[in-house]
Design brief:
alpha+beta; Multidrug efflux transporter AcrB transmembrane fold; 4-stranded antiparallel β-sheet; 52% helix
Length: 548
């Protein structure tokens, strides 16, 4: 008996000591005084993070514009068919988009239609909408269209997660809602505007050639005020050569803040896209110390980029991101090795953010903001204060009730509640969990469950004492008879918490995590912790009467 009590006492003491050690980094003012090896340890250095409702931050709901993804795929397929038809010497007299997912093709020679249809069938996702003579209309079939919609949402979700992880937000919430919506919660965000720009940027990187041979009448101006870009495009409507487009480079004067745009005549054909990029990082230009973005390409990209630069020496190549030119340098020589530089009058922050979105990859479709809410830190502090008051008031009332109703045994139950809270907070810190208002509610509920378990045990002990059993036998019998009831109640609660965690979002998951940990810890404190105290008191003083 004494040996068993010693081991159980040692176990309880060790659990309390470990919980306190785990919680120390979460205490205000304590983390900074801890040694580096402690703070950098993957478990000991973790701390409890506060959720969006406690420390403020951003709550965003995006809708993925999946129809834009369909349009992009249809446009890409049309371009591929143009190139493949040229390679097979099938002459096209016309090829153009007629809707978001459909395009029409007219052959110069009607007799080559079968050869062209063979190219279309190789694509696997196109179906013929109509065919008459030398003309036909094609579109993405319904099964492929649904697959593209689903894939674009999942890709957008993963891209957002990668960007936000690199942005450095602790414990973000990024989950899909419905068929095409994504919920994003960013606790503790310091610069909402910057985060919004970083998250929503499509980041479609394209390399296109500047058309230096064609001439417009009148020639494009050297630069224009930013507000006049739409007017300039309207002025040149119908005058731009087929296969060309006008794009702009944005320039901001660092001193005055004035924004101008430089128009370029660009060949529409994309020579290379950013999907071959494997690394991007901000670095200073060795000559001017201005911020720039260095990028590296995979093997396929390196070969394409090398061939592109070899064939276009002394020509200008535009680096285009989301339809805007970042720079249009002249290719001075053949660039082998798959490495390059993007310059564009960046600030350090702009270059760093550009590197993040390029590393994370392009969004498969634009995002539309449905909700954009900012939770202030003041409101969060009010919530924390209210939560503290609730925990303290609830705890005090429970402690007083147990002391009055169960006397000395009530004090032991209060010890179990304190032990439960210490271990629970230590575990939350070890898991680097996010504490939310519902999480605080879970802690309060855990206090109630802890007391309920002890009430069941104490009532069973009273029954055993009324039967005339000794104090030691009554304690053992009370715990044995209450065990199954306590276990059943905790298992059913744990199942409920698991369901909430599986299907809940954000704060609901925080509640489920806190409740699950509280249930498991309460089983230990109620069945082991209090039993140790009863056995220790009874073995040391040989009680003749139990205060219960």
């Amino acid at each position: 008996m004494k040996k068993s009590l010693m081991w159980r006492s040692s176990l309880v003491a060790a659990v309390v000591a470990v919980a306190i050690i785990l919680f120390l980094p979460s205490l205000p003012g304590v983390r900074g005084s801890l040694p580096d090896w402690w703070k950098n340890n993957k478990m000991l250095g973790n701390k409890i993070n506060l959720g969006l409702d406690l420390q403020g931050g951003m709550h965003l709901v995006y809708r993925v514009e999946t129809e834009k993804a369909l349009e992009s795929n249809a446009s890409r397929l049309l371009q591929e068919l143009r190139d493949e038809a040229a390679a097979k010497e099938i002459a096209l007299s016309d090829a153009k988009m007629v809707s978001g997912t459909e395009f029409s093709v007219t052959l110069a020679k009607p007799e080559e239609m079968d050869k062209f249809l063979a190219l279309v069938s190789n694509k696997g996702m196109l179906e013929t909408k109509s065919k008459e003579g030398a003309s036909a209309t094609f579109g993405i079939d319904s099964a492929s269209a649904e697959s593209i919609r689903t894939r674009s949402v999942s890709q957008a979700l993963e891209t957002l997660r990668n960007r936000i992880d690199q942005f450095g937000v602790a414990e973000p919430v990024i989950v899909q809602q419905g068929t095409d919506e994504i919920l994003v919660q960013l606790p503790g965000i310091k610069d909402p505007k910057r985060a919004l720009e970083l998250i929503g940027k499509t980041a479609l990187l394209e390399f296109k050639m500047v058309d230096e041979d064609s001439r417009l009448d009148p020639p494009l101006p050297a630069s224009i005020p930013a507000s006049e870009s739409d007017a300039l495009l309207a002025q040149y409507a119908g005058k731009v050569p087929e296969g060309d487009e006008i794009l702009f480079e944005r320039v901001q004067d660092r001193k005055t803040g004035a924004v101008t745009k430089i128009p370029y005549l660009i060949k529409s054909k994309t020579m290379m896209t950013g999907d071959v990029l494997v690394e991007a990082r901000m670095s200073p230009d060795p000559r001017t110390m201005a911020a720039q973005v260095n990028f590296s390409l995979n093997q396929q990209g390196a070969q394409t980029f090398g061939e592109l630069t070899r064939l276009n020496v002394r020509k200008r190549m535009a680096i285009v991101l989301d339809g805007n030119i970042y720079s249009a340098p002249t290719i001075q020589d053949h660039i082998a090795g798959g490495e390059g530089v993007i310059t564009g009058r960046f600030s350090d922050e702009e270059a760093r953010d550009l590197a993040i979105v390029l590393r994370a990859g392009a969004l498969p479709a634009p995002l539309q903001i449905l909700q954009n809410l900012t939770v202030g830190a003041t409101l969060g502090q009010d919530s924390i204060d209210a939560g503290k008051k609730a925990v303290m008031l609830g705890g005090i009332l429970v402690i007083l009730f147990m002391l009055v109703y169960y006397r000395m045994s009530g004090a032991i139950a209060d010890f179990a509640v304190a032990l439960n809270l210490i271990v629970l907070i230590g575990m939350l810190a070890a898991l680097s969990a996010t504490l939310t208002l519902p999480g605080i509610a879970g802690i309060i509920l855990t206090i109630g469950m802890g007391v309920d378990s002890n009430v069941l045990i104490f009532e069973r002990i009273r029954e055993e004492l009324h039967l005339g059993k000794s104090i030691g036998a009554a304690i053992d019998g009370g715990y044995d008879k209450a065990f199954s009831t306590i276990l059943d109640a905790h298992v059913t609660t744990l199942i409920t918490a698991a369901v909430l965690f599986q299907f809940g979002t954000g704060p609901v998951k925080g509640f489920a995590v806190t409740l699950s940990l509280g249930v498991l810890i309460n089983l230990f404190t109620a069945l082991v912790g209090t039993k140790v105290v009863f056995d220790f008191i009874n073995s040391k003083w040989k009680l003749e009467k139990l205060s219960i």
